[in-house]
């Protein structure tokens, strides 16, 4: 099995175990802000146990994809309890089971830090995003503060072994490489939390950028 597939399987097992043993509710105001920006056909990549479900506005159709089948089961139960009509399925962020230009909004909420191939995941998100659609992202990232960044680097090997969690990634680099236009970019908590809204340009503009 290729190394990338082995790491993906390791992450799946980690989140199967966590999903079976705990059920968290997100109180992060950033999640509420992020989901409130969604419009139309919306895809959340790495929806986990559905902690974001209460935060999406009415009038959208939400699809969630998640690597852990156990987490999908928890999210389905949560959606039923909330009376929400959502589509949830198990799948790999690096190979999304959806056609090109299918969604108006694509969301990552603290997911890119654990996806083994984050570059590929962003590329897949852009692939399934309609021209004129928006990519919404809330992640913990590499801090621009040298002292904080040094702490992140010390902790990262521990978090990688424990949860498969990368602390020093820069999703913005991948977003720009895909030719998206950044509409909003904010950092908080010494620069380790990033909020990003990016627009997928119309066809000709995107082709020139890539």
Task: Summarize the SSE layout with pairings.
Blueprint: H1 3-21, H2 29-36, E1 41-45, E2 61-66, H3 69-82, E3 87-90, E4 103-109, H4 118-128, E5 129-140, H5 146-163, H6 171-177, E6 181-188, E7 193-199, H7 203-209
Parallel strand pairs: 1-2, 1-4, 2-3, 4-5
Antiparallel strand pairs: 5-7, 6-7
Helix pairs in contact: 1-3
The domain tally reads 1
Give the percentage of residues in beta strands: 15-25%
Kindly provide the radius of gyration, computed on alpha-carbon positions and rounded to a whole number of angstroms: 16 Å
Structural class: alpha/beta
Second CATH tier, the architecture: 3-Layer(aba) Sandwich
Distance between the termini: 31 Å
Provide the residue-averaged pLDDT. 88
Determine the fraction of residues in helical runs and give it as a percent range. 40-55%
**DSSP strand count:** 7
Q: Class in CATH?
A: Alpha Beta
Number of helices: 7
Largest sheet: 7 strands, mixed
Outline: globular
The CATH topology turns out to be: Rossmann fold
């Amino acid at each position: 099995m290729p190394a990338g597939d082995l790491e993906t399987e390791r992450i799946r097992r980690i989140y199967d175990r966590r999903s079976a043993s705990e059920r968290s509710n997100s109180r992060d105001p950033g999640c509420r802000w992020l989901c409130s920006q969604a419009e139309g056909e919306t895809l959340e990549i790495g929806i986990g146990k559905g902690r974001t479900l209460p935060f999406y506005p009415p009038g959208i159709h939400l699809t969630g994809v998640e690597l852990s089948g156990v987490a999908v089961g928890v999210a389905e139960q949560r959606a039923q309890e909330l009376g929400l009509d959502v589509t949830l399925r198990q799948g790999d962020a690096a190979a999304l089971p959806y056609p090109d230009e299918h969604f108006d909004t694509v969301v990552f909420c603290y997911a890119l830090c654990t996806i083994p191939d984050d570059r590929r995941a962003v590329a897949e998100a852009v692939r399934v995003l309609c021209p004129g659609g928006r990519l919404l992202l809330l992640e913990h990232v590499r801090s621009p503060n040298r002292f904080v960044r040094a702490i992140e680097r010390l902790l990262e090997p521990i978090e990688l072994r424990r949860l498969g969690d990368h602390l020093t990634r820069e999703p913005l680099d991948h977003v720009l490489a895909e030719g998206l236009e950044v509409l909003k970019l904010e950092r908080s908590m010494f620069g380790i939390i990033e909020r990003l809204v990016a627009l997928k340009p119309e066809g000709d503009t995107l082709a020139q950028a890539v």
